[in-house]
Specification:
six-stranded mixed beta sheet, 5 helices, Deoxyribonuclease I, Chain A, 249 residues
């Protein structure tokens, strides 16, 4: 490709800012949500992500985040069969995106059965996806929170569902796994996806405010290129937000 054609292609690419954060569901007196809402909202609002994947979201935390992040639509559904429980909710800028389609599935042998789970997995895990239209382009964002059990099988379920959705693909989540060793779920996901925030560093701090492990990832299909990324060491949660600036061809 000539330099002029390459420059035109670069200009025509859509630039997006993607974020992911495990909000940490309230657990009694241990870091109750009210002490954390403002810090997390400020951390995210300062970067104005276009799309945000959240894990361990509750109606209360989503309501508080929405107050601190006005103008965002919210997609979410509780993980239990009756719709209750924590969510993997997606926040999206309504001034930039038109929501075309959305849905949920569960990490189980019957992913369309609400509240279902893999054998031996401690609790049900729900994934949320949305198909968005912006600037003449369509893309899919899928947001997950893996159980620490059966992570490789969860990765296979994710890919089976993702590959039936429109490209390009973005995946955000807390994967309860590091990219290594070789049997990590990351290796399975890497057959179809690129790690867009790999250089950002550790995301899980265990509530100790020190970097311990990189459990939170932003992944994308080959049409998506990472421009920059960072971990925001702000907000009171056992995870820090991760932000990636990306270019979508």
């Amino acid at each position: 490709m000539a330099d002029r054609e390459r420059n035109i292609a670069y200009i025509l690419n859509v630039k997006l800012r993607i974020a992911t954060i495990n909000l940490m569901a309230p657990a009694g007196p241990f870091l109750p949500w009210g002490d954390r809402a403002n810090g997390l909202a400020r951390a995210l609002a300062g970067h104005q992500p276009d799309l945000i994947g959240t894990q361990e979201a509750t109606p209360e935390s989503l309501e508080d985040l929405s107050r601190g992040l006005p103008g965002y639509g919210v997609l979410g559904r509780g993980r239990w069969a009756d719709g209750g429980g924590i969510q993997c909710a997606i926040l999206y800028r309504q001034d930039r995106f038109e929501l075309m389609n959305s849905g949920h599935f569960w990490m189980s042998g019957t992913p369309d059965t609400p509240g279902s789970k893999l054998t031996g997995m401690g609790s049900a895990r729900v994934a949320t996806w949305g198909v968005f239209h912006s600037e003449g382009r369509t893309l899919t964002l899928l947001n997950v929170h893996f159980s620490h059990l059966s992570r490789r099988e969860q990765a296979r379920i994710l890919l089976r569902r993702l590959t039936a959705l429109p490209r390009p693909w973005l995946v955000t989540g807390d994967f309860n796994s590091t990219p290594w060793p070789i049997w990590s779920a990351h290796r399975i996901l890497a057959t179809h996806l690129t790690d867009l925030a790999a250089p950002a560093g550790s995301t899980w701090n265990g509530g100790l405010n020190v970097p311990l492990a990189r459990l939170d990832w932003i992944l994308g299909s080959q049409e998506i290129q990472s421009l920059s990324c960072q971990v925001l060491r702000q907000g009171k949660s056992d995870h820090w937000p991760v932000v990636a600036n990306v270019s979508v061809a």
